[in-house]
Specification:
18% strand, binds glycine, 43% helix, two-stranded antiparallel sheet, alpha/beta
Length: 359
């Protein structure tokens, strides 16, 4: 058994993230004596959701959500509230969110907002959901002006990552999720990079021990970071708190927006990491070997490393990034492997030239 099979997150109320084949069998234990459970699930998991419900002694309200980002809307949120009201959900009841990152984001926000907050459990079914979305208490929905602009910090009481769910995950989604784990490798745990580089094909196999180890290490990085700065409040000057999890995300969010969200999040994050590596190289923060490693590790798993967009459009879109303060653009960059820092208001020409290396 890997020592990272159970990882504790200790920000406010501590909870465990269990990552293994069969982790879903722990759900009845988390539900305990709870009277009512709302099980919110992605359509593709309908059968598994029924099986899960059958194993619970609580009264279960089944709520099938629209697929992926279509779940993260104000309309769906209201429909979920109406259903909880209809079935008499009280503060002692529990919500379970079962699906990818969008499902756990929406589910978490339903839980955070219903009666000003009820307990919830996340059951992520994708690599991205396991390594990022389901852990750390960021919940929310999208509005026309942008993704995740409305939300709340509310931590789950437990996270069960059942690796058997990855069997049916499309290969491109697994690859894109792996990019978020690679991000954790660059900001905090280089062993993740070694594991990918040693055998990239094995890292992409849903049932490999290597992928399980990479996912667990990615979760461990996230758990450490959010335990120290749940509400993204501790970055000071160049020192970076939870914002480090946004490594590569500033350009990524701009690409996603300009591409009308047709790119997978992880694919855009990969290009965004190559960009900030070029920025850090130009600023003399990292050497050529580390900058180049960004491209080679991503190329090894077949993830994109370039994007041919219009710089002016990208620059505009980046101004709306959540890390921006006033009109000062802020990036997470590395000043060495596993050592992130904030770069605030870099020279505009350096920004543009660095983009020239990514096109
Ligand atoms: N996905 C970035 C974070 O959870 O802070």
């Amino acid at each position: 058994m890997s020592e990272l099979e159970t990882i504790r997150v200790s920000a406010e109320k501590p909870y465990d993230v269990v990552t293994r084949v069969g982790a879903l069998e722990l759900l009845p234990e988390l539900v305990g004596e709870t009277e009512r459970v709302a099980l919110l699930y992605a359509p593709v998991l309908a059968e598994r959701a029924k099986e899960l419900a059958a194993g619970l002694s609580a009264q279960v309200t089944m709520i099938e959500l629209p697929d992926a980002e279509a779940a993260k809307t104000a309309d769906v949120l209201v429909q979920c509230w109406d259903k909880l009201a209809e079935d008499g959900f009280t503060r002692s009841d529990l919500l379970v969110a079962f699906g990818g990152g969008a499902t756990t984001d929406l589910g978490g926000f339903v839980a955070a907002s219903w009666l000003r907050g009820i307990r919830f459990v996340t059951l992520p079914s994708t690599v991205l959901g396991m390594v990022d979305a389901a852990v750390g208490g960021k919940t929310g929905i999208n509005i026309a002006a942008g993704k995740n602009l409305v939300g709340a910090f509310q931590e789950p009481i437990g996270v069960l990552c059942d690796l058997s769910l990855l069997e049916t995950l499309p290969a491109d989604d697994l690859r894109a999720g792996l990019v978020e784990a690679i991000k954790c490798g660059f900001i905090a745990d280089p062993v993740i990079l070694d594991l990918v580089e040693e055998d990239p094909a094995d890292a992409l196999r849903w049932d490999s021990d290597r992928l399980a180890e990479i996912v667990r290490r990615g979760i461990a990085v996230k758990a450490r970071v959010v335990s120290g700065d749940l509400k993204e409040a501790t970055s000071q000057g160049a020192t970076v708190g939870r914002e480090q999890l946004n490594y590569g995300h500033t350009l990524a969010h701009a690409i996603e927006k300009l591409e009308n969200y047709s790119w997978r999040h992880g694919e855009a994050v990969g290009v965004g990491m190559v960009y900030v590596a070029e920025l850090a190289r130009a600023l003399g923060k990292i050497d050529d070997a580390l900058a180049d490693r960004h491209r080679t590790v991503l190329q090894a798993i077949g993830a994109p490393v370039s994007y041919a967009g219009d710089w002016a459009d990208l620059r505009d879109a980046m101004s709306l990034d959540k890390k921006t303060r006033g009109s000062t653009l802020r990036f997470v960059i590395l000043n060495g492997l596993g050592s992130p820092e904030i770069c605030a208001g870099p020279d505009e020409q350096v920004l543009e030239d660095s983009y020239g290396c990514v096109v």
